[in-house]
Design brief:
Blueprint lengths: L1 E4 L5 E7 L9 E5 L7 H12 L3 E5 L10 H10 L2 H18 L5 E6 L1 H12 L6 E4 L17 E6 L7 H14 L3 E6 L22 H18 L1
Parallel strand pairs: 3-4, 3-5, 5-6, 6-7, 7-8
Antiparallel strand pairs: 1-2, 2-4
Helix pairs in contact: 3-4
């Protein structure tokens, strides 16, 4: 765990995973699901570090973790999304750039996917975004402000973020001339999280095949843009 500064000067903690060779290594800010900064999102950061990236996960909940859906819903409901995107996430991008990463992307899952879309609009320092099955209310998406490439992975049978909303988001991006790549998978929400299989929530489904394909595409995107 490290401390870093937000643009407004407040201090935030985050989990930093470093690659073996940090010299000139690009960075990725990883945004949690609604559960908090848990072992699953740390494992994502570790995976990116093994692939050669400096990965930083901001602790958006300030140390709190949810073990069940009601707790997660409560913590997510208390989160100021605008502040998280423009301060916590932007500060994390700035930290990685100030400590040696020339280029930095943002990626996030579920709630973190929605925040990744917002960061594409509100974090000018980022160099690309990878969204995993999550988007904010579309009226908050200023597509004209998105100037860097975006990749997004969506589940066709997502009960939390409908594919109809994905289509509407895509139309907004297309109209604004955004450089984007949307991929749709024949599966359910949270398909890339192995813990989805043991959460006991029917709307969640781990799909190893879809997860591997999405990860392969993600690493290709990051290599190309960072």
């Amino acid at each position: 765990m490290i401390d870093y500064k937000r643009p407004d000067g407040q201090t935030v903690q985050g989990y930093l995973a470093e690659p073996t060779n940090t010299t000139g290594a690009p960075g990725v800010v990883v945004i949690q699901e609604w559960w908090g900064l848990d072992d699953e999102v740390k494992a994502v950061a570790d995976r990116l570090a093994k692939a050669g990236y400096r990965a930083l996960v901001p602790d958006l909940y300030r140390g709190k973790l949810a073990l069940e859906a009601k707790e997660a819903e409560h913590l997510m409901g208390d989160l100021n999304f605008g502040d998280a995107a423009s301060q916590d996430i932007r500060g994390a991008v700035q930290y990685l750039k100030a400590t040696g990463s020339t280029k930095v992307a943002v990626t996030g899952f579920c709630m973190g996917g929605a925040l990744t879309v917002l960061s594409a609009c509100h974090v000018p320092e980022q160099d690309g975004t990878v969204v995993w099955y999550g988007y904010p209310p579309l009226e908050y998406v200023d597509a004209k402000a998105i100037t860097k490439p975006m990749m997004a992975h969506w589940a066709l049978h997502d009960e939390f973020f409908s594919i109809a909303g994905v289509d509407q988001l895509e139309a907004k991006l297309k109209q604004a001339g955004v450089n984007y790549q949307f991929e749709r998978y024949d599966t359910k929400h949270a398909f890339a999280n192995p813990k989805s299989a043991v959460r006991g929530l029917p709307p969640l489904e781990y799909n190893a095949q879809a997860a591997k394909l999405a990860w392969d595409r993600t690493l290709e995107f990051l290599k190309k843009n960072l």
